[in-house]
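Batch queue: ligand-bound targets. Current item pairs a single chain with zinc ion. No template structures supplied; prediction is de novo from sequence plus SMILES. Inputs echoed for audit trail.
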Amino acid sequence: MISKQDLERLLERPSNGKQIVSLFLDMSVNSNNKRTHNIFLNQRRAQFDELDSDRQNHHREAIGEVFARVGDWLDDGFDEENRGVVIYTEVGGPWFEALQFPVPVRNQFVMSPRPVVGPLAQVLESYDHHGVVLLDREHVRILSVYLGTLLDEFEVHKEPLPTSRDVQPGGFSQQRFQRRKREEIRHFFKEFADEVAGFVRRDRPDDLVILGTEQNVAKFMEFLPEEIRKKVIHTGAMEVDETTSEVLGKLRPHLDAHREMEAQAALQQLRERLDQDYLATAGYQSTLTALQEGKVDTLVMERDHTRDGVRCKSCGFVFARMLKSCTFCDSQEMEDVNASEEVVRMAEGQGANIEFVGPGVISDLRGVGSILRF
Ligand SMILES: [Zn+2]
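Prediction returned. Tokens below.
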């Protein structure tokens, strides 16, 4: 599984002058239950065979070794349940790191001085970590769900009061029994709420879903502390012992809708700000400038968008235009970069919120925009 920590580690990795291969593989299976990533890998390998074998930093042997390492890992390290793979490895150096997860990524092979993180950030930012709480009056199950799959599960069972045989409907002992039963439920729900609070502290889910009968869910919510109740994005009916795959299948449309709503809300705020010409940017250059000034609160970006740019080797400023010299320091030492990758790197590095939207949704903003903090 992958997490923000992987991304942070990659962002902090210093460049050592060696070229790094960043390889993204779509490992989903087609209608014949086959994976097709080898076609992509073979095409890439064939391209290198055609190249001059002694191009600087691209020595054929070192590249051959990269493909051999990738092949070995796919044979031994890949878990068949997963659908996406990201591999980073140095050309002519020892570093090799493979990440795998249950959602697909677009096939890409990039060679550059630093690991390419954009597509990984896109996966991480497009899915939330959910805590799914299923309960009835005697059990609670807490599912930790990320990228559509179960990471972990906890369960608490309580022994209910036995129903006494001499309890007559309407009688004195019946009233006493009912009162004790109500107290028992209160007691259990309080304990379940503590379990949920502990889970939130430990696992830090982005949000919570509470499932059970309408009455139990409403009652249980009263026991949750305010800051935890605020995390609840969906409640609904579900049997406490429903299979995990059934639970996830039924929840998926609700969770997708919630994710989409969040992205739409950010986009709407961005458009309103732009209309009022107030603390917002549209397009690559103004967004890059705002990022480099540390002003971005929320970045809104089109999925898989790419744009070429340059970085000044002297002052480090990144431009989304193919400038020959730096407009800040006049240096003529400019290196080519992927401006989209730079935007994501900076936003992630600064801890800005990032919302990815579908292709074409923000063409009028030239693929990227941001809401500014100041
Ligand atoms: Zn410069």
